[in-house]
């Protein structure tokens, strides 16, 4: 679709997109970084990558071995 448009049309679309993006509210990283850190710390107890998966609920645990003799 974009290949069929002229350079002027592509630039117009880009300007329209940038006008939309400039209206988005922005927060300083000093604020959002703290919020992300607090969220991650609050969720750490339920994170299986940090806590591990119980052996009885691990779907990837090897159930048994197959021996071919």
Automatic annotation (TrEMBL):
Residues 47-69 are annotated as: Disordered. The lineage of its organism: Eukaryota, Metazoa, Chordata, Craniata, Vertebrata. The keyword Membrane applies. InterPro entries: G-protein_gamma, G-protein_gamma-like_dom, GGL_sf. Belongs to the G protein gamma family. It is found in: Cell membrane. Residues 54-69 have a biased composition (Basic and acidic residues). G proteins are composed of 3 units; alpha, beta and gamma. Residues 1-69 form the G protein gamma domain. Pfam families: G-gamma. SUPFAM superfamilies: Transducin (heterotrimeric G protein), gamma chain. Keywords: Cell membrane, Lipoprotein, Membrane, Methylation, Prenylation, Transducer. GO terms for biological process: G protein-coupled receptor signaling pathway. GO terms for molecular function: G-protein beta-subunit binding. This is Guanine nucleotide-binding protein subunit gamma. Guanine nucleotide-binding proteins (G proteins) are involved as a modulator or transducer in various transmembrane signaling systems. The beta and gamma chains are required for the GTPase activity, for replacement of GDP by GTP, and for G protein-effector interaction. One of its GO terms (cellular component) is heterotrimeric G-protein complex. SMART domains: G_gamma, GGL. It is a lipid-anchor.
């Amino acid at each position: 679709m974009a290949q069929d448009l002229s350079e002027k049309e592509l630039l117009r679309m880009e300007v329209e997109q940038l006008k939309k993006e400039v209206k988005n509210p922005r927060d300083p990283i000093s604020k959002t970084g703290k919020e992300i850190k607090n969220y991650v710390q609050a969720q750490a107890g339920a994170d299986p990558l940090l806590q591990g998966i119980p052996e009885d609920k691990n779907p990837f645990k090897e159930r048994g071995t197959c021996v071919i003799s």
